[in-house]
């Protein structure tokens, strides 16, 4: 199974341009599953609720979902991509999954980062896991990585590949994903963006270095900090089903949940 990331530098507010850029990067890529960055179609550095209200789209139904479905069909690929999702009065920082047959689902970011709390409603669903044929995939968005419960939950629910659309501004995630994958024995694709956004008196620099990490914590592919690129790696997703560390230790079998009650309070 070929899994990968699409790393690029979206332009704030220019949805058509960002969709075109993503499509150009994906075009001709041989992959079963590609992950795009968080808010890949709109950009990240929002300055008002009205602004993101105007950019948010329904999923399915909006032009971003329709365009991704067309790209997935043409390139015979599953896509996971971050976008602002409107649902009634609410706006979520979401990631959608589309298959070559069309829209599958939306995951709404559970752990909102910094000023996202001003613009978005917190995710209202559980961490989702979907069977896409060659394997089961889980979805989380950027800052969710900071909470080990996110990836643990996805892994306990059977995810073999964790799809991780991101707009990383701190330098820790790529290294931390080594441990997240090792402690859950799952693969992960962290798709980050590049560039700097300057809006009014605010500025954010994104750290690139999108990454594919394997079940043993090896980095299979890592992009540069500034390059726009697609990175793909051929994996055996069955490796993520084997939680046996040695003849005496099974990573999930050896868990002692009765000693962990405090983390569920
Ligand atoms: C982040 O969650 N975009 C840092």
Relevant terms:
Nitrilase/N-carbamoyl-D-aminoacid amidohydrolase; binds acetamide; six-stranded mixed beta sheet; alpha/beta; 6 helices; single chain; 265 residues
Q: Can you walk me through this structure?
A:
The protein has a single domain (2-264), classed as Nitrilase/N-carbamoyl-D-aminoacid amidohydrolase (4-Layer Sandwich). The chain contains 6 helices and 16 strands. It has helices at residues 15-26, 49-55, 63-75, 116-119, 148-156, 173-184; strands at residues 2-7, 33-35, 78-87, 90-99, 102-108, 129-131, 136-139, 161-165, 187-191, 196-199, 202-205, 211-213, 219-222, 229-234, 244-246, 249-250. A 6-stranded mixed beta sheet has the order 5-4-3-2-1-14. The radius of gyration is 18 Å and the shape is globular. The mean pLDDT is 97. Residues 38, 113, 142-143, 167-169 line the site of acetamide.
In short:
The protein has 265 residues and is an alpha/beta fold. The protein has one domain: Nitrilase/N-carbamoyl-D-aminoacid amidohydrolase (4-Layer Sandwich), CATH 3.60.110.10.
Rg, please?
A: 18 Å
The CATH superfamily label reads Carbon-nitrogen hydrolase
CATH top level is Alpha Beta
What spatial order of strands do you see in the largest sheet? 5-4-3-2-1-14
Report the helical percentage.
Answer: 10-25%
Question: Main beta sheet: strand number and arrangement?
Answer: 6 strands, mixed
The mean pLDDT is 97
The number of helices is 6
Beta strands, count: 16
